[in-house]
Amino acid sequence: MPGLFRIGYKLLVNDKGKFAALIVGITFAVFLMIMMTSMFSGILRRSAATVTNVGATIWVMDPAVNNVLSTIPLPDYVLDAVRSIEGVKYAVPLYSGAALVKLRNGSYQAVSVLGLDDSSLFGRPELEQGRIEDIYAENGFIVVHDAEFRKFGSPTLGTEFELNDHRGVVVGIAKVANSGLFGIPTLYTTYNRAIQYIPNARFTTSYVLVEPKDPAIVPHIQDQVKRLGYDALTRDQFIQRISRFYMYQTGLGTNVLLMAVISFIVGLSISGQTFYTFILENLERFGALKAIGARGSQLVFMILFQATFSALLGYGLGIGLSTLLIHVAQLRLPSYAAMTTYGNLGLAFAMVLIIAAVSSYIGVRKVLRIEPFDIFRG
Amino acid sequence: MSAAAIQANKLVKWFGEGEAKTFAIREVSFEANFGEMLYIEGPSGSGKTTLLSMISGILRPNSGGVTVKNLDIWSLPADQLADFRLNTIGFVFQDYHLFPRLTTAENVAIPLILKKQDWDASLKLARQYLEIVGLRERAELPPVKLSGGEQQRVAIARAIVSAPDILILDEPTASLDGDTGKRILEFVKGNILNDKRCILVVTHDSRIFSYADRIIRMEDGKITGIMNGSPAGEK
């Protein structure tokens, strides 16, 4: 480390009170920022859990659909029309709906039901227990072993329940990549059993899942589906549409943005003010350094180093603290929706850089303005 | 006495403009030589500090020039002027301006570090200079643990550690009791002054006049007299 940075480091760190205040300010800001954005990322991921878990390449839906749960049933001809589009390898229907289940202990539990195409079982989950072909057995259902599993009474193979006065039997326990957002257990069954057990409107197909022959043909399929008056979205496009819905139409995004801005302002205020006080207290000494022969650029580098060091340390501590808290929360609450992404980290990093830049700008301005002559004058 | 270390030529400095214009220095000229301990004395507001600042490359005069070792310092750009101060001038400020968060040795090493010298080598040299000023055992303490006289000596060590040709002491006895002030000046004259160095002292403390080779008396921004120092102060 160059000697001047070492001097800057010692001036900063040896002033324990101010250094602690500076680090706490930045850490707190990063912590708040990461927590808020991670929670938001977790919610967004869970909101698109069905899309991720089913894994189809293309989802055909009514243009008004903006999240997985608010399905608008498609007329039966859509499935045939999609199947007839050139470049479609296969297309299958998917039922997605909600129902109320009566458990063995007599209590009721809301569940999400996915009905898979009877012939292909396309979108089936990976099983932890049981065999997938048992889904065809009488009243067969597969329960997803996720954070909501306990709400279904932690069933085992053979556990029975009632769904709209129909008997249901757990024939498999599955694991999926992502848990859902709404805190209810998920059941898989066949498409026909789903529409038979759950009361429906005239049309029953929630989505048509499409697998193209070639990824390059996707735009053509989307175009053809558009002509039918429906949307064909790739998996990523559908996830984006869901994310946009939660971000812009539920107020969730605005709230998270506000919290992020508030945490940024808090961090900036605490660290900016503390750094400013630190510079003010040492101003005469910086002036003395200038009188002795320090170049303006040397002092600027020293202040930038101090600000950057504080910012990076606070950033690291903030990330560590938020990661620890998220981990502990997830141990205690398996359904706790929070996920730290590179995007969150990048955003917090950018915020910390701005805090460092503003803080050092204030300091640099002060230090460059001090005249060594003032040191002599006292 | 030997060659001129500093030549101040018709220095003029004013502050403010229009009706607020106040002359701090009015056509001041003098020379200071190597091997000489030159005092600038006068009442408060007489322009001593302003003069010192112009000589040391800190405050630009409105007119006139300063030549240090045949170099017209006010023709230098800002960065070179800073380098000039770093390499040629050693400052002992009235309030010392030591960094309380650094050790005494680190404070002394600052000019060397500004010169981008190695950290360990700078500290080693700083400790040697602390030994010269009799504070070797205090090297690892923060300055706030030292007495006023000791802090003054640390400031002197910092000023001479980079072997400057010119040493400037601004009111060196202002914060010290009479005896300590005398001991400091005695030390400076006996151990720091040599044929290759010129020492300027700004003071209005007549108790230490005896250590001066010459005394420039200032009043209202002008030199009103140049006297020889007391024989008691001769080397």
Secondary-structure blueprint of this entry?
The complex is a heterodimer of chains A (378) and B (235).
Chain A: H1 3-13, H2 16-47, H3 49-54, E1 58-61, H4 76-83, E2 88-102, E3 108-116, E4 126-130, E5 140-144, E6 160-163, E7 166-175, E8 186-190, H5 191-197, E9 207-212, H6 218-228, E10 231-234, H7 235-248, H8 252-281, H9 283-292, H10 296-332, H11 342-369, H12 372-377
Parallel strand pairs in A: 3-8, 5-7
Antiparallel strand pairs in A: 1-9, 1-10, 2-3, 2-6, 2-9, 4-7, 5-8, 6-7
Helix pairs in contact in A: 1-10, 2-8, 2-10, 2-11, 8-9, 8-11, 10-11
Chain B: E1 4-15, E2 22-33, E3 37-41, H1 48-55, E4 63-68, E5 71-72, H2 78-88, E6 89-92, H3 104-114, H4 119-132, H5 148-160, E7 166-170, H6 178-192, E8 198-203, E9 214-219, E10 222-228
Parallel strand pairs in B: 3-8, 3-9, 6-7, 7-8
Antiparallel strand pairs in B: 1-2, 1-4, 4-5, 9-10
Features:
heterodimer; A: 378 residues; alpha+beta; 6-stranded mixed barrel; 12 helices; 10 strands; 53% helix; B: 235 residues; alpha/beta; Rossmann fold; 6-stranded mixed beta sheet; 4-stranded antiparallel beta sheet; 6 helices
